[in-house]
Model the fold of this input.
Amino acid sequence: MIKMWQHPLLLLGHGKFHYKSAILMFLLCICVCFLSSCGNVKGNTESQVSETKKFKNHASDIWSASGNKITFGNKIIYSIPDLDKNSNETPDLYTVTKDLVYVAYFSADNKISVICCTNSGKIEKLSSLSYESYGGPNAVYISFTDARHGYLLYCSDPGAGIMGKMLWTTKDSGHTYTPVKDLSTDIQNYPADMAFRNKSNGMILTSYHGEDTYAYITNDAGKTWTPYEIDNLKGSNYVNGVSIQKDDKRNIWVLTLQIATNHGLKTVIYTSNDLWKSWSKVQNSVQKAT
Done:
């Protein structure tokens, strides 16, 4: 950097032509500094985004949650007053449209609370689910197939490495939930995300905890679950499921995995345009996980 600044200064004493060159060099240096600062801003922004919840469709760049704050763009729509401070889990959001989002979180009354928010600021408390008979607060995932039908997955604290997992469903926009099944023995490892593409077909991704399976699918509305392979990953040490989301703009599903090999942990993105029948690795999506 010093040499870049020194060079035009040395040109100043050598006539009109070199004076213009010095001015051009000076302007070039300013542009370089500006672009460099933009890169730093981008890096900081990406770091901040990584700390927030990853959401489940094309409106994920509009809705977000951090702590007890639900935001739409740069506007705070709602500050959850009864968020359980003993839970480290950020509320889970599912955006039905850019105007409507469903939120599930652990509340201070030892319940799972479900609310809906609109970008105009309308908040409605929909339901509360008791989970104490299954364990403590650890993680909750919510998914809707339309404005009325949806699913909720509760995961308990893993006592002695064993995590309780309970699946509920709603048919009235989240006002009431009915149990589907205790998935504690059906789903191995620790759930990392859940999505349903319609009322019958769903997927649960899991992070590695001793078992090789990283994805499970159901074709009967959550009653039975079977291991599911996204890709031939037999050469890996283990695989973490990270997220699955619908991109309505492109009418595709986007799925993210972390793959551990002897060379380290890498993040890989896959897409499907045929309702999960096949998945294609996104070129240039492979990144070293941090």
In short: The first helix runs from residue 2 to 11. Helices lie at 2-11, 16-50.
